[in-house]
From TrEMBL:
Residues 102-341 form the UmuC domain. It catalyses: DNA(n) + a 2'-deoxyribonucleoside 5'-triphosphate = DNA(n+1) + diphosphate. HAMAP family: DNApol_IV. One of its GO terms (biological process) is DNA replication. It comes from Erpetoichthys calabaricus. The keyword Zinc applies. Keywords: DNA damage, DNA repair, DNA replication, DNA synthesis, DNA-binding, DNA-directed DNA polymerase, Magnesium, Metal-binding, Mutator protein, Nucleotidyltransferase, Nucleus, Transferase, Zinc, Zinc-finger. This is DNA polymerase kappa. Residues 794-824 are annotated as: Disordered. The lineage of its organism: Eukaryota, Metazoa, Chordata, Craniata, Vertebrata.
Length: 832
DNA sequence: GCGGATCAC
DNA sequence: TATGGTGATCCGC
């Protein structure tokens, strides 16, 4: 690896770009020459390789440019820069926080280790997890051959013909991940997961308490753990009788974490950080038969580097003092630092920087060649500084879905594919109740050239149709630009970003609340103060209009025929203009969910008020918590809920013409009861909730009626939420709830009613769609384009999810897999 | 805001 | 035969 930029760009026989790096644990002391030759031979001439060369040249150009810039730097500039750097170093040093003890813990060759644990035949053989197209990870036997993560299986096979490739089994990894996270939580309830197999913990508080613990609390018994764990008992039966607890997964692995005599039945851990971490690793090993490595340091950056130091099955600690930190940092190769990747390494190397102390020495130069954020970051690294505060579940910034397939050049197929991706994305968005303003289309052509196209709206979108409307335009532009040559694609992806922040949501809620509680004189209410007017504050208008737009879209999609004869816009006019449009309608009360034998809005409102009042009284009168379940609207007489505005009335208007509504409503009400109380009713089966979707006679003919139900549920929930917010009850009540979707019957990992509402909305629509499809003859062999085009290998490659939302921990990949539901795809295609 | 790049896992 | 998917961030327009 001694080649510099210049020689690399000449493209001599040896290509460092494609070559193995020995950064990864278990890759030391390999026959790199040979490995690189094999990799090169297997890659040379491929489109992929050509593209890698191109990218490499771009980096080289970047470096050349940087070097030219460097030549222009004067001594004075450098001196001035040095002063600036010195000042920053001083400031940074002053702010150095050595008060926390951060642990980074990382399972050893996680996926491979799980597979080896569960299949004894794999133990002593080189193996990897993934497919012929892509490997996720390899065991340490395989690493000796140069087989590593992110390497295509077919190349790995060339390096190691006896390599066994095991397909990914995410469910299993997720299960193990849940087990280890239980342990993490005992040491730091606020631990920060990085991926299925990795997490940061701040054990400072744990250690404070730990020092007072009696020995008994730090004592762990072997047999108890082993017998209570299925995995380990399997191994015991399988002849693992060498006195170690877990299988020796790696032959170069240090002795097992238990350094007591085999006959000893318990082990007492000390009170130090190292002992606590050893204990944690011991417990992980006892529980899962898998080993973990850990780093202990004053901040996350150092902890992360440390966990790699004694991998596998080891740990390393940097004491919490400045000197120890600087000693550790001194000769640390910059590439070991998280955030410094291949390219940055190469650029810095061109400046003669390979270690962290060199990074420090060249601070002035770096400040003149890199952006402020970059050189600040470099400087922090060089001082061994990093985050001392673990980020709690940050807000998601984007969500995307993308797929690789064998070449698709036909525009029709490309559009079709694009829609499928939008559909998938919309489903994922629903799950989290998100809406975004920016849609980005990602395309990779058969030459591996990547391109993204984005479009931003002034409002947020979330449905398949909305997203597709944007994505298809972006795609069209690309197709047109390419014409008459076809776009030859190997990958397509759709991303959505520009979500409402929590802050935005609060703002919105406030404005809605303001809308609901504004002085009557300011709002064109009816004489009773009910919001039958279409007017209102700006924010609330857009909110409800969007809601209506969504419903219109659903209407069109779900029942175009009905839509033709009964136009939503027309109905709007009737409503706005007065009671004409209501003459032949009956209204359904959103509280008692009973049809009201009136078309007079005034009467109807009075009924609602009565309903609300009565349930409020109930709520106050009773101490019986189960009774409270029926108290849907949380309000009092003084704060009448007057939430019925235009869109609601529209929906209510639909629902009088058949008895579908009442059937559905009762179900909804039942479910709502549970939602509000947080009664998860685990025993509630799919059958129990299915009537909501399947049981209604004529359901498929009355799609808009389903919208009614949906709207009522949604608005009731919103009503409740807003009321609760208003009464400042939300945090005390809502956050403890387990929300169970009444439609899909799945527990939703959110306590945010807004999020939950959106999920329910979506679920309800899906029910209608499915029902509709059942009714309509639809080619059963209308298989998804992606299913046809995507190879199994492509589907099963590594994809560790890095969701920042701890409410739905990084398990999303697996959750995303069922996306390839052919029925669902055909449903959406049907409506195209 | 857009598009390309880099990085992590 | 065959080189991934998801999310974040940064930089230079």
């Amino acid at each position: 690896m001694e080649n510099n930029v210049q020689t690399a760009s000449t493209g001599g026989g040896f290509q460092p770009w494609m070559a193995v790096n020995d950064n990864k644990a278990g890759m030391e002391g390999l026959d790199k020459e040979k490995i690189n030759r094999i990799i090169l031979e297997a890659s040379k001439g491929s489109k992929f390789y050509e593209n890698e060369l191109k990218k490499e040249q771009q980096v080289n150009q970047r470096i050349e440019k940087m070097m030219q810039q460097k030549e222009l730097i004067t001594v004075q500039q450098l001196r001035k820069a040095q002063l600036l750097v010195d000042k920053l170093v001083n400031d940074l040093e002053c702010s150095r926080d050595l008060g926390r003890i951060i642990v980074h813990i990382d399972m050893d060759a996680f996926y491979a280790a799980v597979e080896m644990r569960d299949n004894l035949d794999l133990r002593d053989k080189p193996m990897a997890v993934g497919s012929m197209s892509m490997l996720s990870t390899s065991n340490y036997h395989a690493r000796k051959f140069g087989v590593r993560a992110a390497m295509p299986g077919f190349i790995a096979k060339k390096l190691c013909p006896s390599l066994i490739i095991v397909p990914l089994n995410f469910d299993k990894y997720k299960a193990v991940s849940a087990e280890i996270r239980e342990i993490f939580a005992e040491y730091d309830p606020n631990f920060s997961p990085v991926s299925l197999d990795e997490a940061y913990l701040d054990i400072t508080d744990h250690l404070e308490q730990r020092c007072c613990w009696p020995e008994s609390r730090r004592t762990y018994y072997l047999e108890k753990e082993i017998t209570s764990t299925e995995h380990t008992s399997d191994l015991q039966l399988s002849g693992n009788t060498d006195g170690t607890i877990s299988p020796v997964l790696f032959e170069d692995s240090p002795p097992p974490s238990l350094n007591t005599a085999p006959e000893q039945k318990h082990i007492v851990f000390g009170i130090s950080a190292e002992e606590a971490v050893r204990e944690m690793r011991f417990r992980i090993e006892q529980k899962t038969s898998l080993t973990a490595s850990a780093g202990i340091a004053p901040n996350t950056m150092l902890a992360k580097v440390c966990s790699d130091k004694n991998k596998p099955n080891g740990q390393y600690k940097i004491p919490n003092n400045q000197q120890a930190v600087m000693d550790f940092i001194k000769d640390l190769p910059i590439r070991k630092v998280p955030g410094i990747g291949k390219v940055t390494e190469k650029m810095l190397k061109a400046l003669g920087i390979t270690t962290c102390s060199e990074l420090r020495q060249q601070g002035a130069l770096l400040s003149l060649l890199f952006s402020e954020t970059s050189w600040h970051h470099f400087l922090q690294i060089s001082l061994g500084l990093g985050s001392t505060h673990l980020e709690r579940d940050g807000e998601r910034k984007s969500m995307s879905t993308e797929r690789t397939f064998s070449e698709i050049s036909d525009p029709e197929e490309q559009y079709s594919l694009c829609r499928e991706l939008c559909s998938d994305l919309a489903k994922d968005l629903k799950k989290e109740g998100l809406r975004g303003r920016t849609v980005t289309l990602k395309l990779k052509n058969v030459n591996f050239a990547l391109k993204t196209k984005a479009s931003t709206l002034s409002y947020a979108v979330s449905t398949e149709d909305e997203i597709f409307a944007l994505a298809k335009d972006l795609l069209k532009t690309e197709i047109d630009n390419s014409s008459p040559q076809p776009l030859r694609l190997r990958l397509m992806g759709v991303r959505i970003s520009g979500f409402q922040s929590q802050e935005d949501k609060k703002q919105q809620q406030k404005s809605i609340l303001g809308f609901l509680h504004t002085d009557k004189q300011d709002i064109p209410f009816t004489s009773q103060g009910h919001m039958f007017s279409t007017q209102g504050t700006k924010a609330s208008c857009s909110f409800f209009n969007r809601k209506k737009a969504e419903l219109m879209l659903n209407d069109q999609k779900q029942n175009p025929q009905e839509h033709q004869t009964c136009n939503v816009g027309d109905r709007d006019v009737h409503l706005i203009n007065g009671s004409n449009g209501l003459l032949n309608c009956m209204l359904t009360c959103p509280v008692c969910l009973m049809k009201q034998n009136t078309s007079d809005l005034k009467t109807f409102n009075e009924h609602i008020d009565k309903c609300l009042s009565s349930v409020s009284e109930d709520q106050e009168d009773t101490n019986d918590k189960t009774q409270k379940a029926s108290n849907l609207p949380i309000c009092d007489d003084k704060n009448e809920i007057k939430i019925f505005c235009e869109s609601d009335i529209n929906e209510s208007v639909h629902c009088n013409s058949s008895n579908v509504m009442s059937t559905s409503c009762h179900n909804v009400k039942d479910k709502m009861t549970r939602i509000v109380m947080g009664n998860t009713e685990e025993e509630s089966t799919a059958e129990e909730s299915s009537p909501l979707i399947h049981n209604s006679v004529g359901y498929s003919r009355s799609c808009s009626k389903e919208s009614t139900t949906q709207s009522n549920v949604t608005d009731l929930c919103e009503m409740i939420q807003h009321k609760q917010d208003y009464k400042q009850k939300s945090s005390s009540l809502l956050t403890r709830m387990h929300l169970l979707c009444p439609v899909c019957n799945l527990k939703q990992e959110t306590s945010d009613l807004d999020v939950f509402n959106r999920h329910v909305d979506v679920c309800l629509n899906e029910g209608v769609l499915k029902e509709l499809v059942k009714e309509r003859p639809c080619s059963s062999d209308a298989v998804s384009l992606l299913d046809r085009k995507t190879t199994a290998a492509h589907l099963d490659v590594n994809s560790r999810n890095k969701s920042k939302r701890s409410a739905s921990p990084p398990l999303q990949h697996a959750a995303k897999k069922p996306k390839h539901n052919k029925n669902e795809n055909t449903i959406y295609r049907f409506f195209r």
